[in-house]
């Protein structure tokens, strides 16, 4: 049996010139997308066709949907709203020293093109795709189902959630087919799903499968963690990046972004990951309104305590988060949070000791890294949170004014 890599690889666009690389596996600090958009800010709204509208939870099979839909039905309705994204960038390369040992020729500039996927979300031509599809691109074009290729403007990019929004102008509203956006909070393990995209440049291919798991975590291109990710066994390959994952009612529940690969192949092995559509709605609305997304940043590396570890190290509580390191010039550092002074290895696991122990945030008990990050997700830079901690055996409260996540969230 071939070994499986411990981390997923980005669903790189199908390269026409050059090849994509695997994504980094760095998770530093507590990073979160900013909360919901309010006031006069643009919002991405859910569009549900009357024939498929329902308040019922997601259903497991295509034939069990509110209105029975076959995979073909979903394809007919959704494929016109799926686009092929062509990203063109310029890369600088150095000639092989064997052919130019003295460096007389210097670096050369080459044009690189790659193909990815995306989908229309409104009648004014906004299109969602992955950040890594258009990362570094100086020209982007999209192709619709009628093979008409149009230049696209990059409205905004967010490396922390691996999302980007494009816009195509000059097309009449009737030529655009926005896809219906579902509710990823209602998705259940076992639900039937389909993926539509352009794997290896094969335009508008559809594959089917199920939701294999929920609440996965993957790393964004800048190393920030992306939470609440949907795992699916629907076949995904390079070029599916940015395409929609749809439920049995034909609603988008996620954006296909990464795959787990084997040690000998970078193709599909039945483990794919999609960014949940609720995250996409939030981020897309901010990108459309402002061109960027501000993320709250606490700036700590923490490790969850178990009752057995708490007993062994004589900690004052059985659950909480041991602070390992505190990022320099971060919100946590400004508030006086203290990191570990020693690392103790026990049965192969290393525990940070001597630092603070976080037990609550805004009065809510925290027992996992994911829970703390989820609580930060609802906050915005500049907002203040209250941390209840133990410093040794002493209980303390710290007020922390959250900062902005740096471009590369590393301590």
CATH T-level topology of the largest domain: Thrombin, subunit H
Q: How many E strands?
A: 25
Calculate the terminal CA-CA distance, rounded to whole Å.
37 Å
Strand order of the largest sheet: 10-11-12-15-14-13
- Sequence stretches where pLDDT stays below 50 over 5 or more residues: 1-6, 15-59
Briefly note the structural class of the backbone: mainly beta
Number of alpha- plus pi-helical segments: 6
CATH class of the largest domain: Mainly Beta
- Describe the biggest sheet? 6 strands, antiparallel, barrel
Overall form? globular
- Strand share of the residues? 35-45%
Using the 3D structure, state the CATH architecture of the largest domain.
Beta Barrel
* Helix content range: 10-25%
Arithmetic mean pLDDT: 82
Alpha carbon gyration radius: 23 Å
Helix and strand topology:
Elements: E1 9-10, E2 14-15, E3 31-33, H1 71-78, E4 82-94, E5 107-120, E6 126-129, H2 131-134, E7 139-143, E8 149-158, E9 163-167, E10 192-197, E11 205-219, E12 225-232, E13 244-246, E14 252-259, E15 272-276, H3 277-290, E16 295-297, E17 300-304, H4 307-312, E18 321-326, H5 331-334, E19 342-346, E20 349-353, E21 357-361, E22 364-365, H6 369-377, E23 384-391, E24 394-401, E25 403-404
């Amino acid at each position: 049996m071939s070994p499986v890599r411990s981390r997923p690889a980005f669903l790189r666009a199908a390269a026409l010139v050059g090849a994509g690389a695997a994504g980094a596996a760095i998770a530093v600090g507590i990073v979160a997308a900013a909360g919901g958009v309010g006031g006069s800010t643009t919002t991405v709204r859910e569009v549900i066709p009357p024939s498929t509208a329902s308040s019922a939870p997601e259903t497991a099979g295509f034939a069990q949907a509110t209105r029975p839909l076959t995979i073909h039905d979903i394809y007919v309705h959704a494929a016109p709203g799926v686009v092929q994204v062509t990203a063109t960038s310029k890369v600088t390369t150095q000639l092989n020293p064997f052919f130019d040992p003295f460096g007389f020729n210097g670096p050369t500039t080459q044009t690189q093109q790659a193909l990815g996927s995306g989908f229309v979300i409104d009648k004014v031509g906004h299109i969602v795709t992955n950040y890594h599809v258009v990362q570094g691109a100086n020209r982007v074009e999209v192709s619709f189902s009628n093979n008409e290729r149009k230049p696209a403007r990059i409205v905004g990019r967010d490396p922390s959630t691996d999302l980007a929004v494009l816009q195509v102008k000059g097309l009449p509203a009737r030529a655009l087919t926005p896809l219906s956006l579902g509710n990823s909070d209602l998705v259940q393990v076992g639900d039937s799903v389909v993926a539509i995209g352009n794997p290896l440049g094969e335009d508008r291919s559809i594959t089917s499968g199920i939701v294999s798991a929920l609440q996965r975590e993957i790393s964004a291109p800048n190393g920030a963690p992306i939470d609440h990710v949907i795992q699916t066994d629907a076949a995904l390959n390079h070029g599916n990046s940015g395409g929609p994952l749809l439920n049995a009612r034909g609603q988008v529940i996620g954006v296909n972004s990464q795959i787990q690969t084997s040690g000998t192949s970078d193709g599909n092995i039945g483990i794919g990951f999609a960014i949940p559509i609720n995250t996409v709605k939030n981020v897309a609305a901010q990108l459309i309104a402002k061109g960027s997304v501000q993320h709250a940043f606490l700036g700590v590396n923490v490790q969850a305590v178990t009752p057995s570890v708490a007993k062994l190290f004589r900690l004052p509580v059985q659950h909480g988060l041991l602070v390992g390191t505190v990022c320099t010039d971060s919100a946590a550092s400004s508030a006086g949070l203290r990191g570990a002074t020693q690392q103790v290895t026990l049965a192969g696991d290393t525990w940070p000791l001597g630092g603070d122990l976080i037990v609550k945030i805004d009065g809510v008990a925290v027992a996992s890294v994911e829970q703390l990050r989820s609580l930060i997700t609802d906050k915005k830079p500049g907002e203040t949170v209250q941390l209840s901690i133990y410093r040794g055996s002493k209980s303390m409260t710290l007020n922390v004014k959250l900062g902005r996540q740096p471009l590369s969230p590393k301590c």
